[in-house]
Amino acid sequence: MDIQQDKTPLMLSIGGGKGGVGKSMVSSNIAVQYAKEGLKVVLIDLDIGAANLHTIFGIRQPPKGLGEYFTTAKSQLEDYLLDTSVENLQLIPGSGFVPELANMRHFQKVKIINQMKTIDADLILLDLGAGSSMNIVDFFSMTNAGVIVTTPEPTAIINSYEFLKNVTFRILFRILKNEPKLLRIVKESAVPRKDKSAPTIEETLACLEKENSFFSENIRDVLNDLDFYMIFNQARKPSDAELFKKLNEICKRYLGLDLNVSGLIYYNDEVPSSVLKMTPISLSSPDSITTKMLRNHALTIMNSVADKYHKGIVVPFEQQYERALSWAHNDFVDNLLTQKRISKEVEKSNKAYTSKYNERVPSF
Ligand SMILES: Nc1ncnc2c1ncn2[C@@H]1O[C@H](COP(=O)(O)OP(=O)(O)O)[C@@H](O)[C@H]1O
Ligand SMILES: [Mg+2]
């Protein structure tokens, strides 16, 4: 799979408001799936205070993690990479509570993200913690695309919506930070009115347009381009997929977002067993339906992200929804994967040819 437009790795974050829904389960397993497809993957445990990805990969006590990175002057992220048992997959472990992180400034986050971009990898996955704290929201909004994990429980769905709202408004606030009038309009639209109703995105955009039509169009484009994927984990029945439609309707109406759907993952007792074995389920039960669903979602997401990343094409929600529900094999992804392998082979033979050629060229 050739997903790199240039040498910068593609960055995906995995978030969602609620704890315990399965963010780490999803991020660890999709990381394994991408690595198995030949992508060079780095998984970063950004769940500060409750880091546990290393445990999922059977590493009891990582030698060092993000805690040390954040508290050591001039440290380089690359020095914190840890090999896992999976070829092509490295981990940057998280850490316990790091007081400095609570007040992390925006430029510090930008610095970390910029360091992540220099890591030699095709794909970087960020496993984020629960909640909608500024750090989590900022890291999420700084990546190319985001995967929201929720369960079908109303509490988890509400938390996911709140998370999406926080991410969306945070992005808008930053865009409009030097436009006080417009910023005020957007800030006002983020809170319910006196009659408890919430302004729709169209109402907000109409107010913005009256002030400045250039910005309002720009904001519409930004919202359109936000690339969010939903996974409903621990589902109990196929009809849980219907919740996507409801959540997406609300996101469209109030946030102007058109969510992409990846699909369901059913509740399966093998998942907690895999945690006890300290191995991702993709490795401990490679043939289980959960592994197949995780693989399907991983490929669907990467197919879409790689597609948009390269061509700027936005796939409509309906199409994504159909695609997520079908179990059909995805030729497009396969082609991309094959291309990657081929390009690696070509690169190898080119290198061999160049070195042979260089041997024959006399030096002056
Ligand atoms: N599809 C699933 N079926 C059964 N149990 C699951 C499933 N997904 C996650 N779990 C369990 O839920 C718990 C929380 O998962 P985790 O990935 O740590 O959540 P988060 O990172 O969102 O806090 C774990 O004990 C895990 O075994
Ligand atoms: Mg977690």
Structural descriptors:
binds adenosine-5'-diphosphate; binds magnesium ion; 8-stranded mixed sheet; 364 residues; Rossmann fold
- SSE pattern, N- to C-terminal: EHEHHEEHHEHEHHHHEHEHHHHH
- Fourth-tier CATH superfamily name: P-loop containing nucleotide triphosphate hydrolases
Total count of domains: 1
Please state the average pLDDT score.
Answer: 81
CATH topology: Rossmann fold
- Strand segment count: 8
Q: Give a short account of the largest sheet.
A: 8 strands, mixed
Strand content: 5-15%
Helix/strand structural class: alpha/beta
Strand order of the largest sheet: 3-4-2-5-1-6-7-8
What is Rg? Answer: 21 Å
SS field, number of helical segments: 16
CATH C-level class is Alpha Beta
Q: Topology, pairings included?
A:
Layout: E1 10-15, H1 23-36, E2 41-46, H2 53-56, H3 66-71, E3 82-83, E4 89-92, H4 99-102, H5 106-117, E5 123-128, H6 134-141, E6 145-150, H7 154-175, H8 180-189, H9 201-211, H10 213-225, E7 228-235, H11 242-255, E8 260-266, H12 270-276, H13 281-284, H14 289-311, H15 317-325, H16 331-360
Parallel strand pairs: 1-5, 1-6, 2-4, 2-5, 6-7, 7-8
Antiparallel strand pairs: 3-4
Q: How would you sum up this structure in a few lines?
A:
The protein is an alpha/beta fold and 364 residues long. Helices cover 52% and strands 12% of the residues. The two termini are 41 Å apart.
